[in-house]
Amino acid sequence: MERVRAIYRIETAFDPEVAAAAMAGEQSSGTFVAVPGETEELKARFAARVERVTRLEEVLQPTLPAAHTPAGRAVWHRAEVELSWPIENMGPSLPNLMSAVGGNLFELRHFSGLKLIDLVLPPTFAEAYPGPQFAVGGTRRLTGVEGRPVIGTIIKPSIGLSPEQTADMVRDLAEGGIDFIKDDELIAGPPYSPLAERVRAVMAVINDHAERTGKKVMYAFNITGEIDEMLRRHDIVRDAGGTCVMFSINYVGLSGAAYFRRRCELPIHGHRNGWGVFDRSPWLGISFVAYQKLWRLIGVDHLHVCGIRNKFCESDESVIASGKACLTPLFGEGHRPDTVMPVFSSAQWAGQAPDTFAALGGTDLIYCCGGGIVAHPGGTAAGVKSLHQAWDAAARGVPLEEHARDHKELRQAIEKFG
Amino acid sequence: MERVRAIYRIETAFDPEVAAAAMAGEQSSGTFVAVPGETEELKARFAARVERVTRLEEVLQPTLPAAHTPAGRAVWHRAEVELSWPIENMGPSLPNLMSAVGGNLFELRHFSGLKLIDLVLPPTFAEAYPGPQFAVGGTRRLTGVEGRPVIGTIIKPSIGLSPEQTADMVRDLAEGGIDFIKDDELIAGPPYSPLAERVRAVMAVINDHAERTGKKVMYAFNITGEIDEMLRRHDIVRDAGGTCVMFSINYVGLSGAAYFRRRCELPIHGHRNGWGVFDRSPWLGISFVAYQKLWRLIGVDHLHVCGIRNKFCESDESVIASGKACLTPLFGEGHRPDTVMPVFSSAQWAGQAPDTFAALGGTDLIYCCGGGIVAHPGGTAAGVKSLHQAWDAAARGVPLEEHARDHKELRQAIEKFG
Lengths: 418, 418
What we know:
Two copies of one chain form a homodimer.
Chain A: E1 3-12, H1 16-26, H2 40-46, E2 49-59, E3 76-86, H3 94-102, E4 111-120, H4 124-128, H5 135-143, E5 150-154, H6 163-175, E6 180-182, H7 195-213, E7 218-222, H8 227-239, E8 245-248, H9 249-252, H10 254-261, E9 268-271, H11 276-279, E10 284-286, H12 288-298, E11 302-304, H13 316-326, E12 341-344, H14 353-360, E13 366-368, H15 371-374, H16 380-396, H17 400-404, H18 408-417
Helix pairs in contact in A: 6-7, 12-13, 14-16, 16-18
């Protein structure tokens, strides 16, 4: 019998082994007294199993309030716990998987901290879900970018621009050599920029530029909304020759996204805004390493992972772990490709290229810069050039400062943003 | 122009006014340098606005790690902040609303704590979403219960029972006088109990019991899954004469649930498992008072709110606030009813009835007891009776102990669970 495995970090005033057993129990029968019908045979077959408890440090204060403390205890143990379930408990169904591995556990009284760190899923899930449709290869093919990251940017300001103003910015960016542009997550279809009008205005510029130059910019239109609306918006984008749609994955949700994906003919740019709720606390929630597996099975093609030296609270270590996770196959040999393109974004400019390249060991990523491109002293084209130069230097192992000596745009970027 | 309002609790080493301005800025243009095109006119029309900053206590340690601290500061301020946005920024669209009020804010460097506490939405949302279809009145009509809570229970163990074993339990519960039964959130359609077979077996018992007695037990079948699957399962339940479907709202997600709701002909029992991620920390996430508004607009009919003196970490105060919120209309006069039935569950038995009644000021709730019914010393029927007795006492203001003197089942319950 295939099993689903889940790895957690816990903090508890109980013995970690006792607390781990409580987790397994809650996710098997889950009531406060023994109930009739729960036989040993049923338990042996279907109960969640504690596979491993690895003790970590002890702390003198609980991280989260309201956890139960056994009498006389004044130390909180931290531990890594691995549980497993037979796949037949939930079937290869992501929402039901999440109810099993992430249901009531976060509220259990034993815990002053509980975070889902990783999931190890059996290949049955790869048969049940379509996975990414375009992923790294399809994105490279559609953008015509090889041997370096797809260089992207975000339309700013995120509010108030008319379709024509947006198209003007796209023209400037396309002429500047950009590969990829995305709507901000704050704009989908507001009255001042209905999606259909924005698509018409933006795609006129992109199609025209593609005809003249052979280079088609990938524009991720934010189609976030209700499912019917998203499907209509998808068709509008597709019919206008668009090559990407974007939505806010956390607020569309797992099942809605899965439904959309099966009807989608374009790459899906997965925006994780709201992610902080899941990952901001080290002792509550779900790590991105676990969560991205769900979204890859559902079949997004790009996933935001923040960026090194970002403007948010996420550590570089966490960002890199997320980026690497996106590029690590979920299953072994003989399964269809399921890696997706990590999107590095948030206060990015040429300066983070070497460290990002070194950590990822490659260039299969979308590198999104906002101010790092449009606020470059030499203008948009110079901003894009500074990024090509930085990634070229990174890939060849040349220090940025050295490369900047005979590359003006990179030098200007370092002077302004460094 | 209608505005959306959101209330947050924040913790920050910055001046709270400065931090609140950063929140508003991030949710308006959101990049790290000034960008071209962001005119004062655009800002005035579309920018998020800080409506209020109310300072609370100061603390000497940050709650969440990695927040930025201005040089020389060693105090963290707590405050309540109210922001507002013009409705045209996101339209009456819940996923886009959430991107606006709950997007990147949780990750902003200014904050060692940030929680969305409440949302005040304009009535435009009531026009865009259908709201609950059955709610309190429909649930009472379908169960035939008036003047007291709908008394419910959960099928346990949650794993391993065959459809026939489940139906046997339902028979016992129906004969015991139960009003409502729900599948556990851990069972949807596993191989050992496919939904269609469980529906067939359970509804045979329920329909037979209804024919004999005139009382039709409402059974919330857990149809959690992908949307196509949920729609098929819905039809199976409806065609068998079932009167309720249940799903794990957090893992189906907002847009998936909204899509399903518009095609659903039965009451929706909204199970919030996984909720701890959002609410377990006092300084991160989303309060239930805010979140339940989304689910009511989408149109679930029942919403889990935990229970007084529960087995989890939630305080009674929080539970009551959640229950009351479900019963408070979202909009003023002239709008269709949108209250839903709160489901009190988790270690509930007769003992919590008086406090629950006193706090809610009424009996419009589903009162779900697991062990409190099936582990009652007198058996299932006595368990149900003990709850009727307790709620009767509560509604008439008679102390439980006094009422128990001449009500054996209540007395037994107090002896075993009290």
